[in-house]
Amino acid sequence: MDIKPKHLIQTIIPLIVVVFLSLSYVGYSDLKVSRAAAYQEAEDNVSVANEYLRIHFNSVENHLYLLGQILVRDVAIDDYIAMGDALIVNQTNLSEVGIYTQGSYYATRGIEAHNIAKKMESRPWYNPDTKIGESYISPIYMSRTTDKWSVTVVKVIKMANQQLAYILLETDVTELYKQLALLKTMENGYVYVVDMHSRQVIMHPDQSRIGTPSVSVSPELVSQIKQGKTKGAIDGYMYKMRWKFSVYDAQNAFGWILLSGTLTQDITSQAFNLGAVSITLFCVIGIMVLINLISKRVHINGRQLTEVDGLVALDKKLNTVIKDLVPCENVVLFTYNEDLREYIDVRKRYIFSQEEVEQFIPHDKRQSMRISTVNRDDLIARHISPTRAAFRIPLINNDQLQGIAYLLGTPAVLPWFVNIYRVYAQGALNHVLLRQRIKDKDQMTNLMNKNYLRTHIQQVISKKHAGYYLAMLDIDDFKMINDGLGHLFGDQVILSVAEKLKEIMPDQAIIARYGGDEFSILFAASSHLVADVQLQDLRLALSQSEVHFNGKKSTYTVSVGFSAVIGELDSVISSADNALYRSCLVLKYVDDF
């Protein structure tokens, strides 16, 4: 067959068309998968933000209830404001406690205003139609007294003198937003909050946007929400000459719309990154199809990472998805413990200090993933994989190295695919750690709670670390303090003990509120005698503390019992508890043997 040059020329255009159609299909498929992944991540961010705000405003409602009960019992307004001052000092999210009654306004920091009944209609938090016993959240406004963007929860009550009163707790939205700022969708996304009724921005990483009309929330969207479509997505709106998308959720009691999104470019750039690198090899259509199939699998598995709700589940899922992609014997996930300043693998087999890790992963080398098999400066890799090849995946959020995943026993790995998993793993780890921190903290004292303490005691027992002790501490005659000086004074005593424990005990000690007026301390000492002396000094320091609140003052003492961390978890706690009950102000050491 005589193939003429013109025949070859005639095949060029059809071949180019086939190639670009194939590439277009690959790009479009990846775009759909990337888009779905981005939307899922945004929905997860909104869900976490909604829960965080619910916890905060539940706490505010509880404070309002207690403050209202105080006024019902005919407490002087000056005393009431003094209690508010103490509350503001211990709650960084709250900026002002106030009361409006009979034409006068009283607030924390000595603020008073009289004969202002005619001016009240201009106050953003004032609603004259509110019935007694009802509460509501104000619109966003710039506070005249604190110079902070604020929203206020207001409750209407009838005081002991039968006069109507508006009591309020003002929240600093900038301070409240600090935790939500950790939630990001892809590279350029963030969480923000909009008032559904006024369409004003309430929370936003760009503080200049607070109080301004929202670009993404249109009157049409508000109408749809009021008609029952409280969840959904806002596709394709322009902001600062860039296209964006957002996922929204208006199912809350605040009258707010919570949104999370990112630049549309984030989705397209990630999607087309999978196919565009092979455009020069357009003739290898089969390879492109294979890449498309792999990328779909990567994104499907990556989305599964964002659905886990714990570190063990994340470690298990990470092993599954990585082994599905590359030949790999094992994946070891390390996470950073901020309290202990250590990197600990999820299975609690290896522990490395922050200083050790920073020596081989300095700030300017955090993106490096390859580990040489000849010159290994990675301390962790030398311990967990001394003879096998390894691949390091740093997991970074807000410039903080939150975790490291090591792929063990793997040959050459395509960083391209692994980097996609890193994006998903970073988001998943961020969600898990944020949920865990909310779960492990005692909301009143900001100490760790009982569950967190038990986990770390079990870790010490499992590793058979010697020289660790568990102390149980109880405030003496705490019921008499509550009955004689009031529950609010008792709360101040608890807060005082918490602050003194953090101040006196070493940074490495784990201090927890075990329940009520009982605290626990997990600490290291060279011997039981040293531990005894350390706790005696602690008791002495606490006995010299004095609590001042609402014109009252008092000292307090504590009883302490402690036990060596040896044996079973429950037996260690039981031994320390028994020592506490026997102590009666005189510390005794309980030996388990």
UniProtKB/TrEMBL annotation:
<keyword id="KW-0808">Transferase</keyword>
<dbReference type="InterPro" id="IPR050469">
    <property type="entry name" value="Diguanylate_Cyclase"/>
</dbReference>
<dbReference type="GO" id="GO:1902201">
    <property type="term" value="P:negative regulation of bacterial-type flagellum-dependent cell motility"/>
</dbReference>
<feature type="transmembrane region" description="Helical">
    <location>
        <begin position="272"/>
        <end position="294"/>
    </location>
</feature>
<keyword id="KW-1133">Transmembrane helix</keyword>
<protein>
    <recommendedName>
        <fullName>diguanylate cyclase</fullName>
        <ecNumber>2.7.7.65</ecNumber>
    </recommendedName>
</protein>
<feature type="transmembrane region" description="Helical">
    <location>
        <begin position="7"/>
        <end position="28"/>
    </location>
</feature>
<dbReference type="GO" id="GO:0043709">
    <property type="term" value="P:cell adhesion involved in single-species biofilm formation"/>
</dbReference>
<keyword id="KW-0812">Transmembrane</keyword>
<dbReference type="InterPro" id="IPR029787">
    <property type="entry name" value="Nucleotide_cyclase"/>
</dbReference>
<feature type="domain" description="GGDEF">
    <location>
        <begin position="466"/>
        <end position="593"/>
    </location>
</feature>
<keyword id="KW-0472">Membrane</keyword>
<dbReference type="GO" id="GO:0005886">
    <property type="term" value="C:plasma membrane"/>
</dbReference>
<dbReference type="GO" id="GO:0052621">
    <property type="term" value="F:diguanylate cyclase activity"/>
</dbReference>
<keyword id="KW-0548">Nucleotidyltransferase</keyword>
<dbReference type="InterPro" id="IPR000160">
    <property type="entry name" value="GGDEF_dom"/>
</dbReference>
<dbReference type="InterPro" id="IPR043128">
    <property type="entry name" value="Rev_trsase/Diguanyl_cyclase"/>
</dbReference>
<dbReference type="Pfam" id="PF00990">
    <property type="entry name" value="GGDEF"/>
</dbReference>
